Amino acid sequence: MKFDKTVSMLMTLLSILMILITAFYVERLITQNNVSSVYSSKLSLTGAKLSDKLYANVSKVSSQPTDHKSVITQYEIEVVNGSGTDLTNWSLLMQVPEGSNVVDVWNVDSSHDGYGITFTPLHYNITIKSGESVEFGMSIEAQANYAPTSMTLSGFRMAPAGRTFAGKLILSLFVVWIVFFVSYAVVKYNSVTFLKKQKTDVKIILQSMNTFISFIDAKDPYTRGHSRRVAMYAAEIAKRMHLTDVEIQNVYYAGLLHDAGKISVPDAVLNKPGKLTQEERELVQNHTVAGGNMLKQLSSLKGVRETALYHHERFDGKGYPEGLKGNEIPLYARIVGVADSYDAMSSNRVYRRHLSKDEIIEQIQSGAGTQFDPDIATYMVDMINDGYVNVVKMETAEVDGAEEKFHLSEGDIPGLYMGL
Ligand SMILES: [Fe+2]
Measured in angstroms, how far is the CA atom of residue 236 from the centroid of ligand 1? Predict the structure, then answer.
């Protein structure tokens, strides 16, 4: 669960990081166009021809000396689009002679470094409509009064944003990451909603079982807590057998309800301290069949009915009610059978006191392969030796006379790792 949360957090952070990185390149892509063609021409006295259909008219407006023995010359330039189509994504560069200094520009945004002046309105996006022109002007301060022919006007046709392979790749990646992130967020949201609902469902199931088990306990108070302990032992065995989370959960439910059929056994027989007659024994043994019949309705909880019906079968085929043998006995019933026997041996009963730890281990080991599935018996012995059974006993210990303390919760299910 903790691992899942860490992975989920990492995935979210990674996705956000990837989106930010891609967005950075997309931003660069949009703002940095690539030059697809360059037209360059020295200015003549009247202008410059940049292409067959694009030319610039230049006129010198004024020339004034300054106090620093230099001259400021003002030019006006008109770039005319004589082609039949609009020109978009254009940039213009005016190169002025070395030693001169551009002191002012107007009509267009620009950047200049003293040598060249680049007109970069809206990131190189000059648009000149067919038959129209753009006009701009500039003032140059220089030691001499330069002729227009010493200046060069260049036009750069810019490749539209994102049309290159790299551009398309970056834009595609950006879209993929956004789609991935949104999908991931939707799946995550649905899974959280599902888990919440599942948690409510588990609560309802446990509360229903709790109510039902309290009926059995009312009939047989001497074994109060038995079902809950068996369920916890059985779930732990299932966990150690590496069953899935859902299987572990179902084994737990099967453990809780394995003795459901006891409700059909008369109280006098169930609580009789002495030896049972043959007829009484048959009544007690019939709790398996009765339980199986009662739990038919609970078919959505896999294995619960079979466990109630077959938990008194023996591995050697000498059990009841049907005398099933070995793997013919459903797995959950074999698990609960071992857990049930352990709890019976370790609890005081109306007719005897509980056995010692060593006696129980001996009984289980001698019953492995005859009464019990030998593999499952091994897990049970391990749980006795490593003290897990004592943890269950402590967790399920009841305070005398405090019946309300007996309740089930999802925390009782050792193998329940479904995000609850
Ligand atoms: Fe039983």
Answer: 19
Exposure b/e, 127-166, CB count within 10 A at least 16 = b: ebeeeebbebbbbbbbeeebebeebbbbbbbbeebbeeee
Residues 89, 125: contact at Cβ < 8 Å?
yes
Over residues 35-53, the pLDDT tens digits come to 555 666 665 656 777 777 7
Task: Examine residue 321 and say whether the peptide bond preceding it is cis (omega within 30 degrees of 0).
Answer: yes
- Output the CA 258–ligand 1 centroid distance in Å: 6
- What is the sign, positive or negative, of the torsion defined by CA atoms of 179, 19, 14, 16? negative
Comparing C-alpha atoms, which of 145, 139, 138 is closest to residue 69?
145
For residues 95 and 152, give the distance between their C-alpha atoms in angstroms, rounded to a whole number. Answer: 5
Distance 91 CA to ligand 1 centre (A): 90
Summarize pLDDT for 348-378 with one digit per residue, the tens. 765 567 788 999 999 999 999 999 999 999 9
d(CA 118, CA 76): 15
Separation of alpha carbons 64 and 62, rounded Å: 7
> Which fold does the domain 220-412 belong to in CATH?
Hypothetical protein af1432 (1.10.3210)
Domains 34-159 and 220-412 share a fold: no
| Distance from residue 219's CA to the centre of ligand 1 (Å) | 14
Residues 324, 313 contacting (CB under 8 angstroms)? yes
Q: Is the pLDDT of residue 120 over 50?
A: no
CATH class as words, domain 34-159: mainly beta
